[in-house]
Predict the 3D structure of the following.
Amino acid sequence: MTTSGTAPTQPYPLSTRIAIEALGSFFIVFAGLATALFSSSASAVAFSYGLAMVGALTAFGHVSRGYFNPAFTVALAVAGRIKWLPALFYVVAQTVGALLSAVVLYGLVKVMPSSATSGVSKIFATLANGYDSHSPSQVPMIGVLIVEIAAMAILAAVVLGATSARNNTSMAPLAIGLSFGVAMTIMLPMSNGSLNPARATSVVFLSDSWAIGQLWLFWLAPLFGAALAAAIYRTFQPVAPLPADDAAASLGGDSADASSEEGDEGVGAAAGEALPAPVPASSANDAPQAAAEPAVATSSGKSDAQDFFDSPNN
């Protein structure tokens, strides 16, 4: 957290951000899969995913701003919140974290009595995402595709809106987690619940062979829906200068982060927002003050995500 007149918070190293994305993805996917493994209640599984998302965002969301889901990461990259190269690293880390969660569950299943299980592949087949005959409700491919795209587009819009510098609330983690839980409640009877390509990938290598053949949909649909929502969201970004406080919030933090960690020009610049005009110096004595004012505005700003996750009200 930064305050007016102080130096901006130094961004975390890329290696730290990648590790945090893997950790958050591991936690969320493990919570959802473990609940689904031992509970027959779809509401409990959806609640587990949503609550785990709230916890991960509250604890780690300010570090990497990738939000532990490849679709969310793509939405943030399309919206200009993060650079594409770190986004690619985040997606890989999120997938690795999800795979590790499935490995832990595999170890748990292997040590359980054989009479309590019906075989590893059969167990993980019940966790795999699918359509047609592999959908819990026998939903055809086109139906799952449409709902995955629509649900992820809405979720991506929630993420972008909840973490915007123009949003003056401090409820971003709760809003995102609850929305994700509601969406999972819808998706569980249709496809076993996905809305996360990393989660969809986590169990396919331990499941029956059909799971790999249907994995493409659970990457294509969420990524397309998230990118579509982010592209539409970005068209609504204002081109006029922000008020003084909003301009500092949206430009200062991201400019500082970008210059050292991602090479970005800031959220406002990426969205086409005009930068405040420099204050002309009226005399030699006024020159130092004029040169210092932009630095104060920059040091007091935060990135869109950190405006909420690092807020003193959180």
Summary: Confidence is low (pLDDT under 50) at residues 1-8, 240-279, 281-303. Residues 201 and 223 are 14 Å apart (CA to CA). The radius of gyration is 22 Å. DSSP finds 14 helices and no strands in the chain.
